[in-house]
Amino acid sequence: MCRPGTIGILGGMGPFATAAFYRKILEMTPARKDWEHIRTIIDSNPHIPSRSRHVLYGEESPVAGMIDSCNRLANYPVDFIVIPCNSACYFLDQVQPHVSIPILNIMQVTVASLAGKLPVGAAVAVCGSAVTYRHRTYERFLLESGFTFVSHDQRCQDEIEGLIERIKTDDITEECSRTFKSVVDHLQMTLGADAIILGCTEFGSLPEISSTVPLIDSSYELARYTVEYALSCCQI
Length: 236
Description:
Blueprint: E1 7-11, H1 15-28, E2 40-44, H2 51-57, H3 63-74, E3 80-82, H4 86-89, H5 92-95, H6 106-112, E4 123-128, H7 130-134, H8 139-144, E5 148-150, H9 154-168, H10 174-190, E6 195-199, E7 215-217, H11 218-232
Parallel strand pairs: 1-2, 1-3, 4-5, 4-6, 6-7
Helix pairs in contact: 1-11, 6-11, 9-10
């Protein structure tokens, strides 16, 4: 009997986003019985230093904590690791050399999912945290794939970050949905975005928002790819 590869999830950044991400994995797995689901080990480690505070204020780097948690997962052992946090994946170049198994990059996975959904040259905006915004972490992947990167100003970013912080505390209200819809409308109508990447996994906890442009949820795309990857690691 073929056994899928074991998934390792480095979570806790934040905890609600991790919970929503794992639920997506369960929902996407073609399982009819409990034992047909994929074995998954989750290290929900909310004590890894803040990625945003490191970038904004020079506080402690999250790299050492990420390396430690990834190696704990690798030693479990798991077959590969996913990190449902866009900000954390900015540091993967510093983490992966110290970890013996693959760590999937949520940004690369999300942009790859656009192939066939959007025409070449389409303008794509990204809603994400301070790390994602300041370092334009999606821009390289979008340009390499033939898309145009749409940038927004700090005022718009402040609204996005405020919304992310509310979701992190599970303070999800109708006002959150209205704020999010306002941001989406601004990116589309004012800045000309043909699609918007939800480049923070916290957005995966929001109710579905109607939009006339595609909203690409990075949490959803990583969960979908994680299931595919685990099934491709099938072992006897």
